[in-house]
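Report of the visiting student (M.T.), summer placement. My assignment was to run the structure pipeline on a short list of targets and document each run. The first record concerns Putative peptidoglycan binding domain-containing protein.
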Amino acid sequence: MTFSIVARGTDGSGRPAYGVAVASKFLAVGAAVPAADPVAGALATQSMANLAYRPQGLALLRSGTAAADVVAGLTAADPLRDERQLGVVGPTGDGATYTGAHCLDWAGGTAGDGFAIQGNILAGPGVVDAMRSAYLDSSGPLAERLLAALRAGDEAGGDRRGRQSAALLVAVANAGYGADPTVPYVGDTGSHLAVDLRVDDHPAPVAELDRLLAAHHLYFDRADPASLLPLTGPLADEVRALLAGLGHAAAGEPERGLDDALAEWAGIENYELRLAPGRIDPLVLDQLRASAPPR
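After the run finished, the structure tokens were exported:
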């Protein structure tokens, strides 16, 4: 009833990343299938998902256990292993995938260096093949590569019962909301989920996940310093006028700093991570122009 990819890669800054992308004709698949650790690996448990696999599997990965041995250990101790499906990836080597003998057709998977792909009740083996090709042909941050694979699986037929939910989970040390990425990782502080997006019930969940990832980048990525525009001259005049039209830096308050007015608006709109004193992110400028009333 589910297809997923588990993989390791890097984030947009080149830091190690581990993640899972999954879709299913099942309500809120992201609440059951994926688990990831920022330094040890990731896994997906599905087809009669055993939620105990998540903490147990991550603990084994943290101890240095190889992906194939994690799969062997978890399934050997599970009396319902014939109903399960599991994918695991660690910091090095091939990923590992497991499909129990009683999983409903079509069911199976494939694994390679740093990834594992698996699915059950699929339109056919072409779903897994398409995901593998899309992943291997992609480049860049892990989140985008995982989503490319998931999109390819969906376009190849995905879950043969239909579509309902999807999720994307990526762990990177000290890359979660409010974390300082310059601080060395000292253990799970709850600030390692670089991407944690879920579409729980939607007619086109993978497409919706695509939209959410783009929004995630807009709201939570930090601005590229090289792209920032100086708030001087005509641009400063334009930004002040746009803010005034939205009720910030209103006429009659010339003493109010432009940075303060911009920060007030950006805080309301959740763009505060993209702020820089005396400059403006072009993406924030685009949003400001789109939000302001006609002049």
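The mean pLDDT is 93. The first strand starts at residue 2 and ends at 10. I thank the supervising group for their guidance throughout the placement.
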